[in-house]
Amino acid sequence: MKKKYTVTDRLITRITGWIAVALLVALLVWGIQTLWDYHRYELTNDAQVQEYVNPVISRAGGFIVEVKFEENQPVKKGDTLLLIDSREYTLQIDQTRASLEKAVAQLAVLNSNTNTLRQSSKAAASQIAAAKAKVWKQQLDYERYEKMYNAESATRQQLENVKATLDVYQADERAATDNYGASVSRIADNESEKNVVAAEITRLKALLDRHELDLSYTVVTAPYDGRMGRRTIEKGQMINAGDVLAYIVDNETDKWVVANYKETQVAHMQIGDSVRIMADAYPEHPFHGTIISFSPATGSSFSLLPPDNATGNYVKIVQRLPVRIRVDGPRNETDLLRSGMNVNVYINKDQHAQRK
């Protein structure tokens, strides 16, 4: 029995045929476009957006009393991110300041003592002069009595009295001289003690500056304009100096793309070449960039365990060379790209031909 096709069957067959033709044309256009891109561009999909993502590190330890940021929050340079309990640091400052005031007062006392000792030294010097005058006068009296005694005009007792007085005056002169020397020594000792106290004042001033610096570390601020990353801390948490408190993405520097090109592709590239960037997140929005540097070595050379071809199990594998590309364009456009996003990178080979 001859099978008959209905109008519906013929319509379905016709529509299916047109769909097949459309798919064939689409595949043909896609294939031609892909071949054209491979012919005209050096392209790779092994590329990611990079930014400076830096840790916010505590420089002081203590309990967190307040956290002033949220995850993904934009911040400006100098904005307060969190506060650490500062009472211990304030007490250290007060204690050091009191020690410094005590040392300054001691230096003032020593300065006053120096003035007193100098006046005493002047008085001792005057006593030496007076004692010398007495010795000089008594020496003359002794010489006269000695002549008179030799001439039998004075008694021996008178001569002995004069001689005894001369000995007393000479002893007084030596005592005055020793007293003057002792006063000079006391001045030198006082000056040495002043140097010790002055050094202590210098040390305490430096210590006070250090404590004030430590106090300033209890207020953690944003080092630059950026966006905060994941938040892992909370009020009341105990932290130590050196702990990582959060991460911040730097907005003050340019974004860049690290494209890992095959070593067979880099011959058509040069620093300064223009680049077209297509992000997976924004397939209809092309971005533009410029090659700014080539890695000094392939990615495998920087790995933790680089392959050693001398072991005898060598298999030739095409290596990839990281190429750093600066993302150009206005800030509101480049802000669409975030660190870690996957992108496709296209570098026009005609640039290389034009340079030749």
UniProtKB/TrEMBL annotation:
**SUPFAM superfamilies for the chain:** HlyD-like secretion proteins
Q: What membrane topology is given?
A: Single-pass membrane protein
Predominant location of this chain? membrane
Tell me the keywords, alphabetical order.
Answer: Membrane, Transmembrane, Transmembrane helix
Which stretches are transmembrane? 12-32
Location in the cell reads: Membrane
Ranges for domain Multidrug resistance protein MdtA-like barrel-sandwich hybrid come to 56-250
Domain of life, per lineage: Bacteria
Sorted alphabetically, the Gene Ontology cellular component annotations on this record are: membrane
Enumerate the spans annotated as CusB-like beta-barrel domain.
256-297
Q: Which GO terms describe its biological process?
A: transmembrane transport
Question: What Pfam families has UniProt attached to this entry?
Answer: Beta-barrel_RND_2, BSH_RND
Q: What is this protein called?
A: Multidrug transporter
Q: Which organism is it from?
A: Chitinophaga parva
Record lineage: Bacteria, Pseudomonadati, Bacteroidota, Chitinophagia, Chitinophagales
